[in-house]
Amino acid sequence: MNTTEFQQALSNIVSQFQKADYDARHLLLDLTDKIREIGDQIPDSVPKHLSSEWESICAEVDEVQPIFKSQRKTSILFDRQGMGQPGVQRAKNLITRIVALSQSVEKLENERHPPV
Question: What domain of life is recorded for the organism (predicted)?
Answer without folding.
Answer: Bacteria
